Amino acid sequence: MTLQARNISVKLGRRRVLAGVDFSASAGRVTAIVGPNGSGKTTLLRSITGEVAHQGEVRLNGADVANLQPWQLAAIRAVQPQSSSIAFPFNVLEIVRLGLSAGLSAADSSVPMKALQAVGLNRFAGRMYQGLSGGEQQRVQLARVITQVWEPVVDGIPRWLILDEPVASLDIGHQFTVMDLARDYAARGGGVVAVMHDLNLTAMFADYVVLMETGQIATTGSPAEVLTDETLARTYGCAVPVNTTPPAQIPFLLPQARVNMTRHSA
Ligand SMILES: Nc1ncnc2c1ncn2[C@@H]1O[C@H](COP(=O)(O)OP(=O)(O)OP(=O)(O)O)[C@@H](O)[C@H]1O
Ligand SMILES: [Mg+2]
Question: What is the pTM of this model?
C-alpha cells in the first residue's frame, strides 16, 4: 500500500511553489522529506493532505483522495502541522482526545492516555496546554495525532502518520522517543511521512529519503544514496562531510563551521 502524489503543482499568490512533483511513500517504511527552508516540504505535505489547492493527483492506499470524504481520510491518516496554536483554554488530555473524535468512531477511550505515555507526558494530562513549554506542546500534538490513527493497520489497511518537523523543538532524548515511535509504527505496518531538518536523525531512522530543492524533488533513495557530500553541498550551500558508522554503514554528518576558526583559539 502506498501514498502517491503525481505531478503536483502549487501556486501560492503569484509564486509557483511546487512544479510537477512526483512523490511516493510505502506503508511499513519511514519516509523523510528533507530540503532547505522554503524548498516546498510543507506545501508538499499540505497538498498530500488536501489542505492546499493543487494540480495533480494524490492516491492513498490506492484511492484518489479527491473522492474520499473528510471522515474517511481522518480514519486513515493523521497530520501534525509544522506549528499548531490552540486559542481555547484546553487541558492536555482534552487536546489529545480531539484525536479520538477525528479518527474511528469505535476507537478505544484508553488510547489518549496511552498516547501521552508514548510521548512521555502521562503525568501532564491535567495541565493546561498554554502553560507548557514549546517542546511539551509539540509532544501533546503528536499524542493527539497518534491517538487518531492508533492502530497502524485496521482490517488489513495501513494508516498513515504525516508529520511536519515532529522533532523540531525537542531535546535529544525526546527526539529519539519520537523517532522510535515513528519506526515502531512503520514496523507494525503503518506508513510514516515526516519532514525533517536533522539529517543525522534522518539517516538513523528513515528508510527512504526525498530531498527537495526549490519546489522540486532533487533526488530520492536510501539515506546512503541521498546524503552524500556532493548532494548536500549543492543543495544546502555548505560543506557537510559525510562519514559512515560501522558496522551498519549509516551515514553521519559533521557540519564544518564557516566561521573563522581562529575565534576558537583566541
Ligand atoms: N501563502 C503563501 N504565499 C506565497 N508564498 C508562500 C506562501 N506560503 C509559503 N510560500 C512560499 O512557498 C515556498 C515553500 O514554502 P514551504 O512552507 O513549503 O517551505 P518548507 O520547505 O516547508 O520550508 P521550512 O523548512 O522553512 O519549513 C517558500 O518560498 C514560501 O515563502
Ligand atoms: Mg515547512
Answer: 0.94
Burial level of 22, CB count in 10 A (0-12/13-18/19+)? middle
DSSP string, 17-32: EEEEEEEEEETTSEEE
Question: Ligand 1 center to residue 25 CA distance, Å?
Answer: 22
Sorted by where each starts, the structural domains of the chain and their CATH numbers stand as: 2-265 (3.40.50.300)
Closest CA to 77 of 38, 57, 51, 40: 51
**Structure confidence by residue, pLDDT tens digits, 130-146:** 999 999 999 999 999 99
User: How far, in Å, from the CA of 15 to the mean position of ligand 1?
Assistant: 10
Query: Residue 41: CB within 6 Å of ligand 1?
Result: yes
Beta strands in 67-181, from DSSP E residues, in sequence order: 77-80, 153-154, 157-158, 160-164
* pLDDT for 242 beyond 70: yes
Given a contact cutoff of 8 angstroms between Cβ atoms, the answer to whether 161 and 193 are in contact is yes
Rounded-to-5 percentages of helix, strand, coil across the chain: 35, 30, 35
For ligand 1, atom 31, name the residue with the nearest CA.
38
In the reported structure, the alpha carbon of residue 107 is separated from the centroid of ligand 1 by a whole-number distance in angstroms of 35
Backbone angles phi, psi at 179, to 5 degrees: -70, -35
92-102 and 134-148 helices, crossing angle to 10°: 30
